[in-house]
Amino acid sequence: MKRFLPVILLLLSFAAKAQQIDSIYVHLYTDSLKKGTYNYINIDGLLHNGRYLPLDTSNIKFSSSGGKFFGNNLFIENDFAPERVSIKAVLKSNPALYKEFIIYIKKKPDDENLRTVDEIMNSATPSTRQKKRKG
What we know:
Blueprint: H1 4-18, E1 21-26, E2 32-33, E3 37-40, E4 43-47, E5 52-55, E6 60-64, E7 68-70, E8 73-76, E9 84-91, E10 98-105, H2 117-123, H3 126-134
Parallel strand pairs: 2-10
Antiparallel strand pairs: 1-4, 3-8, 4-5, 6-9, 7-8, 9-10
């Protein structure tokens, strides 16, 4: 048994190194935050082997100048007055790895009326429809 202990420890050290996060990146799904909704803040870790790993609050400590975090989601109240929010994401296992960034608050209301399928299909010209059938 004592002979196998060094081999087991060596294998465990390789497994631990494979999951080591070298750097973190912010990949946002939007260019602004919406009031009155949960805004997902996507943080990915670059592993030693070149792969990316999505990170959540078990790996990252979030802080912000406004709103409240629920996991990776930042909730902005409807009456939030500032035009932007500063966010900091710190890797818990290595606080020297962090990202600070600013996201602006969306100013335009979400009242845009999208066209229905019928409106889109009826607005297509006959030549456009024929080209789609042939191609």
